[in-house]
Amino acid sequence: MIYILFLFPFLLLAQKPIIEYYDNGNVFREYFLKDQTQDSTFVQYYKNGNIQSKTQYKKCEYETNYYKIYRFGCGVGKYFNEEQKILKGRSHGKWSFYYKDGSLKSISNYHCGFEQGNFIDYRPNGSVEYSDFYHEGNVMSEREYHKNGALKILTQYTYLYDETIDDSRYVVSCVQTEFREDSTVKSVKEISDYDMDETAIHKEYYPNGFLKFTEELVDDFREGVYREFYENGHKKYEGEYIDEERVKKHYYYDRTGKMTKIETWDANKLIHTEYKN
Questions:
Q1: Contact at 8 Å (CB) between 89 and 74?
Q2: What span, in angstroms and rounded, lies between the C-alpha atoms of 275 and 191?
Q3: Which of 21, 79, 89, 203 sits 20 to 30 Å CA-CA off 276?
Q4: Residue 47 in domain
Q5: Interacting residues of 257 by C-beta distance below 8 A, sequence separation 6+
């Protein structure tokens, strides 16, 4: 059971502090209201008394003398507590979340309801697991880390601005690079979703830097020419695909680069095999 305390002596002030309690007497959460809207710091606690989260809300708009943006259907106006008629403020400032033992779990940053700045997730041992960067509500980069602290995946986004459409800022492309624990590059994937269909060029590498395979994808289906390579750089295989199905000629090579056979495919059915001496 949770108990709510309204501190009435402060009603004359601009902000009204509210404290809610667990049934064991410990504070559950405390926050401020301004015109029945969440405003300023919002602190929530675990039942053991440790802080669970520190967040901030504000009744504001994202507006500067250079730029003004809106997010339809969210922010001020929705109820945080419908029974008490308490409205949600907009996410604003630095947010911090903690594990039960008091160690930091994650931090994030907002400006008037929009993600703005760094978002970092920590493992229980304190090492960084994820680190993202946002600008005006759009993710610009995402980083995932191995347990040894080395970078695992880096994703960088590119956005297109077009005033002629309602959603004037949307993803055009991103480049995702995956790393091994020793920091060598494992793969690179270039993705574009400008025209509804997501297209990608995916390349994976051996630890020595030679190309392992390269493929073209449409909505995660292999489309176009797919090639595999040996660690010495020689081509191992080459064939064409349509919607993940093998079509036309497919060529196979040995480690010296010599062609060993040719397969002919139609709609993923093997039609003919020709062996090379």
A1: no
A2: 37
A3: 203
A4: yes
A5: 234, 235
In a domain, 275, yes or no: no
CATH number at residue 2: 3.90.930
Query: Which two tokens mark 120?
Result: 């970092």
| Beta strand 128-135 pairing with 138-145 | antiparallel
Strands (E), 89-163: 90-91, 93-98, 104-111, 114-115, 117-122, 128-135, 138-145, 151-161
Q: What is the arithmetic mean of pLDDT over 163-169?
A: 52
Q: Who contacts 25 (Cβ-Cβ below 8 Å, separation ≥6)? A: none
Minimal CA–CA distance to 96: which of 58, 44, 22? 44
* pLDDT tens for each residue of 234-259: 999 999 999 999 999 999 999 999 99
Report yes or no on whether pTM surpasses 0.85.
no
Q: By 3-state DSSP, what share of the chain in percent is helix, strand and coil, each rounded to 5?
A: 0, 60, 40
Closest CA to 45 of 65, 61, 30, 24: 30
Which of the 8 DSSP states describes residue 165? Answer: S
